[in-house]
Amino acid sequence: xxxxxxxxxxxxxxxxxxxxxxxxxxxxxxxxxxxxxxxxxxxxxxxxxxxxxxxxxxxxxxxxxxxxxxxxxxxxxxxxxxxxxxxxxxxxxxxxxxxxxxxxxxxxxxxxxxxxxxxxxxxxxxxxxxxxxxxxxxxxxxxxxxxxxxxxxxxxxxxxxxxxxxxxxxxxxxxxxxxxxxxxxxxxxxxxxxxxxxxxxxxxxxxxxxxxxxxxxxxxxxxxxxxxxxxxxxxxxxxxxxxxxxxxxxxxxxxxxxxxxxxxxxxxxxxxxxxxxxxxxxxxxxxxxxxxxxxxxxxxxxxxxxxxxxxxxxxxxxxxxxxxxxxxxxxxxxxxxxxxxxxxxxxxxxxxxxxxxxxxxxxxxxxxxxxxxxxxxxxxxxxxxxxxxxxxxxxxxxxxxxxxxxxxxxx
Length: 411
Fold this sequence. Notes:
Helices cover 70% and strands 0% of the residues. The chain is mainly alpha-helical.
């Protein structure tokens, strides 16, 4: 225990050490976080009136980001499966970075749920009346917090074993948790999808295809973000990311994005050809309804971005890291629009009474959102900053502090 506490103390110290680029990045994130905190304080005092949400559209930017980030957290499994199921050695160390991303994403998810509460001081009522197993909300609470614990344990244990220069006890402390995390990763996004699908008063969500679409889009956007993050790590630290690992992730993205686009086309055909019960919400989203067109430019932009990304990934030029990066950025933005504003808001328009009240986020709402994203990136940056010296052998139990505290030179 004494050595473990020393390990935590040394990790805490090293998180404050880096080159000027590290300090500049952390300063920028801290400033954005402070703006977000200030905006949330205004919301806490005045209530949700500071947001663009209304009685008619009660979920907006916060829940949109929550939905997207649940998928980002679940996507960590796309690194775990090739390593522990298919024995892909090249991705072994990269699993840690995927798990660290999952930790940051889940923390952001919990924060977005918190800021969406009108009275966060009454949050404890959820646990006083924990309506399990009938309420999907209680299932969501369990799977999100359980997944956070799993993803704290797995990379934490692997990093501590590397710090002590010893092999992990896989059969006891690693592999069972890894395979549990694989199942849990699928469950967190499935339960989130069921949370929407189970709301009978919102026919826009009443589709069995929502859960598969959630998983397919998550397994495309998550690895795409990991590809971009790994290149930043490779550029600004001493840790080298093998190019073949990026190409393996590219194949995962290609398959997942193809499935996601196919499911989307299938849903669009079903709704518009048959004229189902939620055609009004779908028509508002894609073509506008009774003179209201708020989300039409967004959803068509999403379709164009995802299509261009898919075409790039299918072409040989995607083997070039430059074009691969372009495809990753396009599909991340496209899926964020599709799973965020393109999924949450249209379900409330029109209302069950036929009202059409469009939603537009306020500046205060946007600042809170940016603050949470900055806080998540701050956590991810610190976790990566701690992990790399351990994996490179500069921060171990038998190394002096001076060796570990040296800023990592760029490759």
